[in-house]
Design a protein that fits this description.
Rossmann fold, 7-stranded mixed sheet, 7 helices, globular
Length: 233
């Protein structure tokens, strides 16, 4: 299995390539926006974003998902697994007027004290864990840095996503990425169904609400499971 370090270097190369070309995500994830900023239409227990929030984006990439929180005055933080990715996030944030602080960190090692954040974002990163144990360690780390009553917004690859369909089954929710992109040969942990995502989240969090978004686009099918859940008060 590849280490976090080798995956970080791969991501850093890809992200800097996108930065140089100008072809990188500039706007927040649409589903995240709907659930957090328009949750009255989608959630049983809607969220109410406040400038008093302290927000952490785990796997911040180009800082695009921090943008709406920065705009309403939240204290924003982002982590990623390679120093070069952090440098990229800082460059993009400065250019776009995003007020945020960035540090090296990853799912299972967040450089923050206990009970520090009101909101944690995990958009397309949890599946980089390579086993059930590591994935659960990541969820426990998310829980550690959240305040009591704090919320987690998590999105991950669904079973109709081309990334999942092309991957080779290894057993135990583990898949080797195959014939997709620069991530080929990396081992990912996929939840296989919404029920599995709900099952694992309920081990750590409360008020777990799980949904699914499938987009059949021209050249790629994008399928994602999404959840909003909270840390026990």
């Amino acid at each position: 299995m590849r280490s976090d370090l080798s995956q970080g270097k791969e991501w850093a190369e890809e992200i800097n390539k996108q930065l140089r070309s100008g072809q990188y995500p500039k706007w927040p994830n649409e589903i995240m926006l709907k659930l957090i900023f328009g949750g009255e239409n989608y959630l049983s227990k809607p969220l109410h974003p406040s400038k008093a929030w302290r927000v952490l984006d785990v796997g911040c990439f180009f800082a695009n998902n921090i943008l709406p929180f920065s705009e309403i005055g939240c204290e924003c933080h982002g982590v990623d697994i390679d120093p070069k990715i952090i440098q990229t996030a800082e460059i993009v944030a400065k250019e776009r007027g995003i007020n945020a602080q960035f540090q090296v960190g990853h799912n299972r090692s967040l450089p923050y004290p206990d009970q520090h954040f009101d909101m944690l974002l995990s958009i397309g990163t949890i599946h980089y864990e390579q086993s059930e144990d590591l994935m659960m360690d990541a969820l426990m780390e998310f829980n550690r840095v959240l305040k009591p009553g704090g919320s987690l917004c998590i999105m991950t690859t669904g079973r109709e996503h081309d990334l999942y369909l092309k991957a080779k089954v290894m057993g135990g929710h583990r898949y080797r990425i195959n014939d997709f992109d620069f991530r080929d040969d990396n081992v990912f942990f996929f939840f296989d169904t919404e029920k599995y995502l709900e099952y694992y989240l309920n081990k750590v969090f409360h008020d777990v609400e799980v949904g699914r978004v499938t987009q059949r686009l021209m050249n790629l099918t994008v399928d994602q499971y999404v959840s909003i859940c909270t840390k026990e008060q």
